[in-house]
Amino acid sequence: xxxxxxxxxxxxxxxxxxxxxxxxxxxxxxxxxxxxxxxxxxxxxxxxxxxxxxxxxxxxxxxxxxxxxxxxxxxxxxxxxxxxxxxxxxxxxxxx
Length: 96
Known about the structure:
By secondary structure, this protein is of the alpha+beta class. The protein has a domain of 57 residues. It is built from four helices and two strands, in the order αββααα. A two-stranded antiparallel sheet has the order 1-2. A hairpin with a 4-residue loop joins strand 1 and strand 2. The mean pLDDT is 78.
């Protein structure tokens, strides 16, 4: 659905689902210039599938990060909790 939504400013999207497949019809809006909507839709679909796969693979890490960010108690080593977020970089003279 997200892949189709990206095109809705330029064209109309229609879905027809059967037991075996889903058919997607793309029609131009009156003021729209015809572009390679099929190619864009397929690329956006691939992008969404990749995002979903990565989200599943990193769910545990994202949950830990969110728990840590929203918790009053340290989830990771206390030493890291007290470390400054940024430090002044050390710039060395490279013989100049």
